């Protein structure tokens, strides 16, 4: 028997009607262009590439408002060589994570939904 929630051959419609819910409509994009620690370079380009690909347009098409766009300052070069059997660039990862935490906390305090783009 087919369930009424079942549409498109087993794929459920999970879209949200923001006009009828208490979903926060104001969005803060937090770009985190952090590439240290990855096996290959390029991760730091992701946040800007998502914007270029139309993320802001898609946000607007959902009836959401982009209220703030932030960029976390991330190191592009390691401060020290990688130690064997240790987390790659631990200090840099810790610093970026703390910055992201601060930006997310600020967005939440302003009543914004935070959308983080990148590695953190």
CA radius of gyration? 19 Å
Low-confidence residue ranges: 1-8
Order of helices and strands: EEEHHEHE
- Mean pLDDT rating: 82
Report on the architecture of this protein:
This protein is of the alpha/beta class. It has helices at residues 46-52, 55-61, 90-109; strands at 6-7, 11-12, 26-32, 65-71, 113-118. The strands form two sheets. A three-stranded parallel beta sheet has the order 4-3-5, sandwiched between helices. The model is unreliable at 1-8 (pLDDT under 50).
List the helices and strands and how they pair.
Layout: E1 6-7, E2 11-12, E3 26-32, H1 46-52, H2 55-61, E4 65-71, H3 90-109, E5 113-118
Short account of what is shown:
By secondary structure, the chain is of the alpha/beta class. It has 3 helices and 5 strands, in the order E-E-E-H-H-E-H-E. The N and C termini lie far apart (45 Å).
Key terms:
120 residues, two-stranded antiparallel sheet, three-stranded parallel sheet, disordered N terminus, alpha/beta, single chain
